Amino acid sequence: MKAVADTLGVSRSNLHERLNGSAKPRRSYHKAQDAALLPRIQRLVAARPTYGYRRIAALLNRELRAAGLAPANHKRVYRIMKNSNLLLERSGMERPERTHDGKVIMIRSNLRWCSDGLEFTCWNGDIVRAAFLIDAHDREIIAWRAVVNAGISGSDVRDMLLEAVEKRFCTHSAPEVIELLSDNGSAYTAKDTRIFARQLGLKPCFTPVKSPQSNGISEAFVKTLKRDYVRVNPLPDAETVLPLLDTWIEDYNDNHPHSGLKWRSPREFIRAQTETA
């Protein structure tokens, strides 16, 4: 038995207890305060049914800090959610491998803005299409436009660009050149749009054909908006959905935790940057 115990790296007494069936089974670890956290977690999961345990932990800790309480470790949140069957089910689908050697995330805000479009269908058949601008560093949706049963036009894109510059700089021109990354849609590649973008201090850049990962920041937002908002809300018609779209984007900017922002929302991250500047 000594040779077997040495090979397994366990004590002889432990091995003897296992063989005799006298070893006590390990109990699941829990803390007395878990019961107090469970109702908070259940409420957050009910409000955000598409969030995994890490985002739920970020929202929970936001609440706890606001109440002057100690934050909870994300592993503890995972354990509580697992014991209460609150974890998301795995999809079972393998992600396709994508090779991308470019630099997507920027080192500070207002170096690169990314833009893309999305669409979804309402229950009555109305098709809502939207375009947006997102900062590649702080992930805030700076401006957006939406249309019903039509395509995003060059005029829509130009209005969106002007609104973004005015929001960020309170003027009609950026103080330094900002890259404007988008796909090769006609609304972005139109001559009038490119000229107008340069007048605003933006430098139009376009992703290579069949390379959506080159605009990964925008692709990630499209996935988030559809998963966390579109799929879990009623979509009776465009008249109802358009006001909701504004609410969803504001909620994303104010509340959605990002792993790349240390589980802070875009505006929390911006405020933290401003305070340390």
Automatic annotation (TrEMBL):
Residues 92-274 form the Integrase catalytic domain. It comes from the Bacteria. SUPFAM superfamilies: Ribonuclease H-like. One of its GO terms (biological process) is DNA integration. GO terms for molecular function: nucleic acid binding. InterPro entries: HTH-like_dom, Integrase_cat-core, RNaseH-like_sf, RNaseH_sf, Transpos_IS3. PANTHER family: BLR2054 PROTEIN, LOW CALCIUM RESPONSE LOCUS PROTEIN T. NCBIfam families: transpos_IS3. This is Transposase InsO and inactivated derivatives. It comes from Tropicimonas sediminicola. The lineage of its organism: Bacteria, Pseudomonadati, Pseudomonadota, Alphaproteobacteria, Rhodobacterales.
